[in-house]
């Protein structure tokens, strides 16, 4: 493989890894506060993409309006899931929360199947995100540069909120000890709702970018990227924001480089993520940047 091809593949890996990181942040934020794996998180990707398809294709809205509606409804749905499916079970055994999360995932998928049908629909990618940049022998889709840039901006905004605002301090306090934080006068329910809102907004943004990168939507489109983002969160250290970003980037790069160096193994690309999950759980269960349970996570 020559140098130009290697750079091309690294850019592709960075683009894919940025998507995984964006989605993985939602998993790690919820886990850091509630110790809950929100398996409905991946389906928010699908909801965001479908709302955008309806806004642009059915209602003929300009894409910024359709994208804003998709993000808003996805964020609202995340808050409603927390209020209806998770909050009533907060003091129940963890297995009850896990079952509720799986049930919420199946509910969203089957609702989409009933409302939109099972036939895949094309995603109307705005022309602003299309095109290819040719430079020095490289052929880089504009979207491959837009995705890491937007991801970086969104993650910077999130890190500022978590580490430089009062709400962020409350999130980190709840992640350390929920019961003690509630005794200190902090509105725990409101902070947790904000956490779900932020994670769902990031999942919605990831869904729009994913749908533009792979321009086809269906009711089950969020399953695989959701699982891979979860694996990325575990790889980096679930409950750790930097770990989620690191895990997403590593997973994206490894997937692309596997196909680049071993084209015959392209069919095993998805299996690589699950092999990595098994290996990281065997070698370092807390992930690359994970800490032992009980310490601050966010």
Strand content: under 5%
Count of separate structural domains: 1
Structural class assignment: mainly alpha
Distance between the termini: 40 Å
| Nearest-integer average pLDDT | 90
Question: What is the class in the CATH system?
Answer: Mainly Alpha
DSSP summary: helix tally: 11
- The CATH topology comes to ABC transporter involved in vitamin B12 uptake, BtuC
Could you say which overall geometry the principal axes of the C-alpha atoms support?
globular
Helix content: over 70%
| Alpha-carbon Rg, integer | 19 Å
SSE run: HHHHEEEHHHHEHHH
Please give the CATH architecture: Orthogonal Bundle
Number of DSSP strand runs: 4
Describe the sheet with the most strands.
Answer: 2 strands, antiparallel
List the helices and strands and how they pair.
Elements: H1 3-34, H2 41-58, H3 63-86, H4 94-116, E1 121-122, E2 132-135, E3 138-141, H5 142-164, H6 166-176, H7 178-183, H8 188-213, E4 216-217, H9 223-236, H10 241-261, H11 269-283
Helix pairs in contact: 1-5, 1-8, 1-9, 1-10, 2-3, 2-4, 2-8, 2-9, 3-8, 5-6, 5-8, 6-8, 9-10, 9-11, 10-11
């Amino acid at each position: 493989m020559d140098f130009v091809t290697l750079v091309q593949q690294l850019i592709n890996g960075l683009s894919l890894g940025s998507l995984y990181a964006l989605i993985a942040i939602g998993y790690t934020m919820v886990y850091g506060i509630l110790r809950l794996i929100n398996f409905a998180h991946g389906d928010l990707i699908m909801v965001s993409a479908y709302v955008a398809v309806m806004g642009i294709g059915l209602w003929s809205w300009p894409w910024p309006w359709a994208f804003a509606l998709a993000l808003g409804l996805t964020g609202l749905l995340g808050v409603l899931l927390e209020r209806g499916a998770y909050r009533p079970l907060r003091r129940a055994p963890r297995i009850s929360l896990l079952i509720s999360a799986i049930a919420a995932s199946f509910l969203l998928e089957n609702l989409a199947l009933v409302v939109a049908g099972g036939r895949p629909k094309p995603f109307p990618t705005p022309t602003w995100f299309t095109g290819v940049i040719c430079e020095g022998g490289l052929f880089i889709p504009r979207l491959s540069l837009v995705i890491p840039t937007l991801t970086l901006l969104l993650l910077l905004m999130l890190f500022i909120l978590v580490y430089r605002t009062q709400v962020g301090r409350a999130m980190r306090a709840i992640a350390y000890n929920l019961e003690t934080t509630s005794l200190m006068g902090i509105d725990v329910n409101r902070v947790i709702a904000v956490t779900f809102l932020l994670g769902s907004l990031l999942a919605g943004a990831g869904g729009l970018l994913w749908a533009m990168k792979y321009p086809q939507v269906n009711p089950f489109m969020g399953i695989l990227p959701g699982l891979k983002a979860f694996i990325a969160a575990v790889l980096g250290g679930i409950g750790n924001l930097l770990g989620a970003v690191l895990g997403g980037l590593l997973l994206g790069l490894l997937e692309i480089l596997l196909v680049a160096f071993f084209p015959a193994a392209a069919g095993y690309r998805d299996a690589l993520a699950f092999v990595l999950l098994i290996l990281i759980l065997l070698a370092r269960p807390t992930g690359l940047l994970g800490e032992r349970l009980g310490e601050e996570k966010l």
